[in-house]
Amino acid sequence: MVQFGPPPGHHWMPLPEFTDEFDGDALDTTKWHPTNPDWLGRAPGFFSPRNVSVVDGCLHITMKYQPDFSGFPDGQEYRDFTTGAVKSRKTVLYGYFEVRARAMNSHGSSAFWFYDSLPDWWTEIDVFEIGGGAPGFENKCFMTVHVMRTPEGEKEHWQKGEVWEAPFHFAEDFHVFGLYWSRDRIEWYVDGELRWSIENTHWHQPLYMNFDSETMPDWFGLPVPEELPSTFSIDYVRSWQER
Question: Under CATH, what is the fold of the domain 12-24+88-227+234-242?
């Protein structure tokens, strides 16, 4: 297994609160929420803590077809599909963040991202969103930044993004994804190679780290029951900040 790590030329300090090898038999709830406590999921897929597990040295987030699931909220918005999310208990500002992960082989998304939503400040950095089993998307890595609102008075959602097309399908094997987030720039890496870079004009808010899988009806299309259950697996997350 190739080891990557943060870019050279900087003095790095490990961030244990955002580092996990997932070597135990349960999620470390001192670091992580076993769901997103502030969001039920992107309908119709519902985040269930039952779909999050730590087994064989990996964090697993599984999407299932469960039309008879008893835990759906009242109403018709959430139905048929359960999935999962893991959210950090703390926020972080700037650093280098690296995961080794394999996307799920379904229409459901596999995603690693950062966000926080406050009354006057809401920004987001998506390290990757992948539809590993969605036809036409199997080899596409979506890298995106969002601004919803800022203390300076911006209130209209806008985004900027890039799509890297890999010479492989992301659900076939594990790959290493890195984000270098500094005061001046944001850089995205896949398997040690720089794939996208932008000036950091807005992303100066402490953010939560997130892993999840969502149903994306208008993007990747709804999963079909025959392809589920399907699992997004994270071998590790490792994080550093500059001294």
Answer: Jelly Rolls (2.60.120)
